[in-house]
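pls ignore typos typing on phone
NAP + seq
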Amino acid sequence: MGFKGGAHAEYLTIRADGLVLPMPETLSFEQGAAFFFGGLTATHFLIDRARLAAGERLLVAGATGSVGGAALQIGRHLGAQVSATASPGNHPLARSLGADQVTDYRKGPPPGPFDVILDVMGSLGWQAARPLLAPAGRLALVTADLGEMLGSAIRPRRYGRMVLTGTNPDTLPAMQRLVALHQAGGYTPVLGPVLPFADLAKAHAIAETFHKPGNLVVVM
Ligand SMILES: NC(=O)c1ccc[n+]([C@@H]2O[C@H](COP(=O)([O-])OP(=O)(O)OC[C@H]3O[C@@H](n4cnc5c(N)ncnc54)[C@H](OP(=O)(O)O)[C@@H]3O)[C@@H](O)[C@H]2O)c1
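k done
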């Protein structure tokens, strides 16, 4: 439902021609709930903004959460050479999702160069990412503060590289594209913690650590 705020509810009324699609039969309901969050952001930044091409070197920094877990799969599916940073416990997950090499972000970034860097948590930023970017490289800051957003709007091109920020628009064509990617074998949501509604406070506490694997789903 996008960034509208609101509450948790068991039922939601939605226009038939609104942001709703039949759930692919290949998904469980938990996977269906997890499907769009992360996947839409990854496709927006990798395809629409950074225009990732086959054979390019992609670094996903923060690679095993909702956005990163989708980005690894989609990057791999698009034919990129995929590198990832993750905490050591998540290295096997990152590899299983398509990373060719994985390093621990707490030991610093991998050496590069990269054609596209998806900085999921904004933990690199322009200063740290700049020496890692190949000529004509693109830095996508999925998490950016106001200064970085204004900076990328005023001065997106820097030394031949691009800095991209913003939020992904939730649209039906973008949702249909993600379903098509799933049907082509390029994306399946990563199910992390699945909790009952009674554990909603715990679910929020887990999500707010920003260290969960994949998507967190609450079952009603
Ligand atoms: N621009 C947009 O449109 C948009 C859309 C959706 C989300 N977001 C933003 O994107 C961010 C990530 O969302 P998410 O749902 O993917 O989060 P998430 O599921 O909690 O995943 C966070 C990921 O970041 C890693 N990480 C945590 N601290 C890190 C650090 N200091 N350096 C590098 N990696 C680190 C975690 O790895 P480990 O678990 O291995 O530590 C994990 O893989 C959030 O800030 C969210 O607000 C932006």
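The pocket of NAP is lined by residues 38, 41, 61-68, 85-87, 90, 105, 120-121, 123, 142-143, 167-168, 210-212 (CB under 6 Å). The longest strand covers residues 133-141. more later
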